[in-house]
Amino acid sequence: MKRVAGRQTRYANKLEKRSGSLWEGRYKSSIVSSKEYLLSCSRYIELNPVRAGMVEDPSAYTWSSFAKKAKGTPDPVVDYDRVYTALGDKAAERQKVYEEYVSQTIPEEELKLIRDSIQRNQVTGGKRFREQLEKKLKIRLSDRGPGRPKKSTK
Predict the structure, then answer these.
(1) Class of residue 89 by CB neighbours under 10 A (exposed 0-12, middle 13-18, buried 19+)
(2) Is the pLDDT assigned to residue 10 strictly greater than 70?
(3) For residue range 40-90, what is the model confidence (pLDDT) as tens digits?
């Protein structure tokens, strides 16, 4: 990701005759339980430019999938995941449901879970999902608090 970010930054700077970094901070990722949280994470992402004050409506943000998913605006780069296609049998139905879902207030616990997962590069999903991943990948993925564990006083 560092190489991709570097190349993209150089390209954008050359194209726009500017200098400096393109993004704030490092790339962060989180494995997402599609069954539980993919739609929630999509809403979180679609609303980021609105929360940042860049646009008033998520469909106005050029780099968002919202215009295609909620308004049907053609965009060859955006493809649909199973969770989105399950919102309705027809395109118009899916678009309406998605637009209504994104316009709802994000519950505080959901927002905290997504933000914490991203900040710590941890799994966005429930305990069962995490346990299944740990078993399959044979690595520890459980949530840990910030910092190093305390040394024992023995």
Answers:
(1) exposed
(2) yes
(3) 999 999 999 999 999 999 999 998 999 999 999 999 999 999 999 999 999
Same domain flag for 25 and 35: no
Q: Is residue 6 part of a domain?
A: yes
Whether 146 has a pLDDT exceeding 70, the answer reads no
**pTM (two decimals):** 0.75
What amino acid occupies position 125? Answer: G
Residue 114 and residue 41: Cα distance in Å, rounded? 7
Please report how the helices 34-51 and 91-103 are oriented relative to each other, as an axis angle in degrees rounded to 10: 60
Helices (H) and strands (E) in the chain — how many of each? Answer: 7, 0
| Residue 124, beta-bridge partner list | 32
Residues 107 and 54 in one domain: yes
Q: Is residue 98 part of a domain?
A: yes
32 pairs with which residues across the strands?
124
